């Protein structure tokens, strides 16, 4: 993997376990990123407003709190993030398309997942899918969203292929791609059901 794959990026790492936070920081710095570390939610929320922030690597459980407020703060600013957590399974429906790297993980997997959400081909679709009003928008213009999503999925495939060319671990990105395909399939099914119900109302 290229040593400077994250060159120029500024990343927020949120983890209350000092050794893990230090290890992730070192991993990202070796990949060329500059890193700020927060070990509490309060501290993370201060860093989340940092104007030059590019992305986040968040443990979902921080002490007795969860990282939901930090996720919300980053999403409001369209700052993409990944989860690096010991929790298993989807954390919530809201964040289902957020790449999740399970602890422990090889450095290449963390860097690969982060590079994936920072890619111009995938950043918008990841950030957009996390917005609270996303479902409403899909319902309002579902045909357009399906077409846009299919185009973005094609770009995601190209981005993954490029990352693989760099030698990056793309397993987390592959999981997100699979989720996005399911989301689009679900939108198609919803579109067909809506059209069917509408035809019944008309008749």
Please characterize this protein's 3D structure.
The protein is an alpha/beta fold and 203 residues long. The protein has one domain: 3-Layer(aba) Sandwich (Rossmann fold). It is built from eight helices and seven strands, in the order E-H-E-H-E-E-E-H-E-E-H-H-H-H-H. It has helices spanning 18-30, 41-48, 68-76, 107-118, 123-129, 134-140, 142-166, 171-202, and strands at residues 10-14, 34-38, 55-58, 61-62, 65-66, 81-85, 100-102. The chain has a five-stranded parallel sheet with strand order 2-1-3-6-7, with helices on both faces. The protein has a two-stranded antiparallel sheet with strand order 4-5. Helix 1 (18-30) links the parallel strand 1 (10-14) and strand 2 (34-38). The longest helix is centred in the C-terminal third of the chain and has 32 residues, at 171-202. The chain is globular and about 50 Å long. The termini are far apart. The model has no long low-confidence stretch (mean pLDDT 82).
Features:
five-stranded parallel sheet; Rossmann fold; alpha/beta
CATH architecture level-2 label: 3-Layer(aba) Sandwich
CATH names the topology as Rossmann fold
Under CATH, the homologous superfamily reads Response regulator
Strand content: 5-15%
Q: Total number of β-strand segments?
A: 7
Please write the CATH class name: Alpha Beta
Distance between the termini: 60 Å
Number of helices: 8
Percent of residues in helices: 55-70%
**SS class:** alpha/beta
- The H-and-E topology, N to C, reads as EHEHEEEHEEHHHHH
Q: Rough shape?
A: globular
Sequence of strands across the biggest β-sheet: 2-1-3-6-7
Task: Sketch the major β-sheet.
Answer: 5 strands, parallel
């Amino acid at each position: 993997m290229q040593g400077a794959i994250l060159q120029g990026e500024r990343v927020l790492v949120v983890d209350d376990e000092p050794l893990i936070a230090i290890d992730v920081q070192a991993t990202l710095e070796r990949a060329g990123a500059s890193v700020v570390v927060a070990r509490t939610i309060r501290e993370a929320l201060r860093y989340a407003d940092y104007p030059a922030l590019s992305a986040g690597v968040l443990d979902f459980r921080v002490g007795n709190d969860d990282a939901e407020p930090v996720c919300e703060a980053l999403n409001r600013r369209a700052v993409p993030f990944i989860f690096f957590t010991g929790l298993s399974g989807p954390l919530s429906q809201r964040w289902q398309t957020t790449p999740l790297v399970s602890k422990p993980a090889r450095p290449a997997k963390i860097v690969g997942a982060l590079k994936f959400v920072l890619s111009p081909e995938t950043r918008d679709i990841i950030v957009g899918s996390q917005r609270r009003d996303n479902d409403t928008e899909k319902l309002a213009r579902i045909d357009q969203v399906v077409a846009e999503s299919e185009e973005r999925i094609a770009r995601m495939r190209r981005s993954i292929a490029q990352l693989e060319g760099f030698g990056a671990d793309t397993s987390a990105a592959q999981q997100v791609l699979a989720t996005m395909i399911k989301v689009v399939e679900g939108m198609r099914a919803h579109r067909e059901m809506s059209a069917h119900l509408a035809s019944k109302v008309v008749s």
